[in-house]
Amino acid sequence: MVDTMALLRALLRTARMARNTSLLAAGLPADDEILLDAPDGRLGPALVAAARGEYAPVAELLAATRESAEWENRDRYVMRLAAFARHRDTWLKEWRAADPHDPDGLLVRAELTIRRGWESPARIELLREAGPMITSAAEGDPRDPVPWRIALDHARGTNAGHTWFERLWAQAVRRSPHHYGCHVAALQYLSAAWYGSHRECFDFAEPAAQDALPGSLVQALPVRAAFAYLTEGGGPGVPRERLDAAADLAIALSASYAAADPWPAEVRNLLTYVLVRLERWQDALEQLRLIGPYATSFPWDRVSDDPLGQFLELRDGVRLEVASGLPLGAPGAGPHPRSGHGGRARSGDH
Predict the structure, then answer these.
(1) Which of 62, 127, 124 minimizes the C-alpha distance to 92?
(2) Are 252 and 275 in contact (CB under 8 A)?
(3) Quick one: how far is CA 296 from the chain centroid?
(4) Any idea what DSSP says for residue 36?
(5) Which is nearest to 350 in space by CA: 248, 271, 241?
(6) Mean pLDDT in the chain?
(7) How confident is the model at residue 7 (pLDDT cuts 50, 70, 90)?
(8) Inter-CA distances, 170 with 57, 141, 163, 194, 285, Å
(9) Which residue ranges make up each domain of the chain?
């Protein structure tokens, strides 16, 4: 009888998964519709021009962000352009030759130098070369917080002490008190992997999130702290309730944006990873629906050499987990399962 009952339970589980998984696909784009790190309508043409070796459209785009004080867009564009230049930098060399002191070109070059420095055994020496470029870029427009975000990354990579870090942080927040990139750079410096601890990360992230403007991505700082905790070996001092609170705050932030909006895509991808680690499957499925086609390399590149493949595999896994927990024909197997505290599976592992 025991064996018969075990077989029956296994058959029911298989039936639930087979029936419910197809229903749970509602609202999810097909695998071949997923885009990894898709540029927006302004950055896309600049990247196409850069691929042809032309720097003028890039220069015009970054100059426009500086002149109109679009600091968040400016920071994103600089990071994406530097990542592109790691493998195709003809356009950047041409730009430097034509105008070596352009503050926008200096900013991209500084970001590129730091990215290349991380990968070198001579990291500190290479990163120090970026110092003058960061200073020149900062002098190009005293309002711009982006050079100070790069300076914070630079401080982390060159083993700068807390006193120097605090001076840079003061300069950054003086220019833009709620700049997301600067907050992320500061959080990384304070992380257990660098010069702080998991508790310091949360102690920094939570007040910053509370003080953030409505809709600001700074509200996602606690979930970034949770990600660091979950991927860096955990340890004492961060209770499960604090991780859940970070996820809940990020869920509320995500809900303030439209579905398939590319702007919060990275935050939604990060939140999905954290929700999966917390075994909050229905919440994770809802975020996957909100992500739509916009997968981002981070955080999946931290756990796989194939971030897109990892994202797609995780989508399937989340659907199976939700499906296996639903009864046959359950209303919750429809396009929008209930999300929230009731969907949590408490785990002593976190």
Answers:
(1) 62
(2) no
(3) 7
(4) E
(5) 241
(6) 88
(7) low
(8) 33, 17, 11, 20, 39
(9) 39-189, 202-350
Query: What pLDDT shows up at residue 2?
Result: 47
The model's confidence at residue 15, banded by pLDDT at 50, 70 and 90, is very low
CA nearest neighbour of 150 among 214, 94, 81, 217: 81
Q: Is residue 315 within 8 Å of residue 28, measured between CB atoms?
A: yes
- Per-residue pLDDT tens for 112-127? 999 999 888 888 888 8
Residues 221 and 205: beta-carbon distance below 8 Å: yes
Q: How many residues does the chain have?
A: 350
Residue 157's CB is within 10 A of a number of other CB atoms, namely: 19
Tell me the H-state helices in the chain: 2-24, 43-51, 56-67, 71-85, 90-98, 103-118, 123-128, 131-140, 146-157, 162-175, 180-189, 198-211, 221-231, 240-255, 265-277, 281-291, 297-300, 307-324
Kindly give, in sequence order, each residue whose CB lies less than 8 Å from that of residue 338, ignoring residues fewer than 6 positions away.
282, 332
pTM over 0.90: no
Domain 39-189: state its class: mainly alpha
- Supply the DSSP string of 257-302, one letter for each residue: S-TT-STTHHHHHHHHHHHHHTT-HHHHHHHHHHHTTEE-HHHHTT
d(CA 133, CA 343): 49
